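Exercise: predict the structure of this protein bound to zinc ion.
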Amino acid sequence: MHDLHIHLGGAVPSSVLWEILCDNGLRTQYVDFTSFHDSLTARPNEVKSLDDFLGRYFQVTEEIQSSPSAASVSAYQVIAKAHRRAQVSAVELRFNPHKRVRHGLHTMDAIILAVMQGLERASLHYGVATGIILSLGRDLSLESNWQIIDTAIKWRSRGSLNGANGVVGIDMAGPESRSLEMSKPWMSEVSAMMGKARDAGLKITYHVGESEGTGPEGMLKVIEAIHPDRIGHGIELRNATGKTKERLIALLREESTCLELCPTVNLVTRVIPDYQAIAKFVRELAYHKIPYCINTDNPYLIHTNLKQEYEIVGHELGADADTLLELGKQHAVNHRFLSN
Ligand SMILES: [Zn+2]
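Solution:
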């Protein structure tokens, strides 16, 4: 199984983060491990929305991961845990290097190199294919996002070494509520960034349609302007109607844009009411011949793993489970950014 949508900020066990925190002597509000672990557990009845989810947990995990040694250990543990818990065979790990430089104390180069070294060790130890997707941030300035693009190009993959690739792709992430995708000047600049990355051989994925903040209209804007290889979530296609829905379905199928589904996080952020909604969506995608794959997003914040995500969806799919899950696994292989 491939996990193509997993964030470094939400995929490291709290025990590992606690050790880093203590070893580095970081001053925080946490007095013991229990309160720390509790504060890093996302519960559906506590999280109000996607924006709330991102603000509540990621600032803490990104701060702890903000040094080369912390970033390296974190990356290694993501792969080790994913493989041991769910027999994952390939991981494309995404993170925002700009948010890990501790207010300019470290360089993005040092952070990316450290993550690469962590992944190289994990690939060698566990036989898992690995690669890095660098996330831009809707909450960062355009200047900072351009810096991430230029750094990504410098570190782009030159192929696989013992299963470990370098930087294989670019992502856009961050709060959806500001509806930046509806702003022409912003989209034109982001489109230029993505174009430069693509010309340098990087693949593109884009968080959009994860909540009503961007919605189906935001998905349409992104596909028309950027033509991403994959879309993070895109679950809002469920709520599209009329011409927008027709156009979205046609474009996703024609461009073979793979939707990276992440069931449990959608439930935690209250984007879907239940798992049945995901199963229904999977059926709809298969019917329209739109590629999809299943991923974890933030396995440690939401206490899941890839095997469990597949099982949850399979349970809801009933008799169609084998066929539709196998199709998802095949799409993940066909749409992965990692070299073969
Ligand atoms: Zn995500």
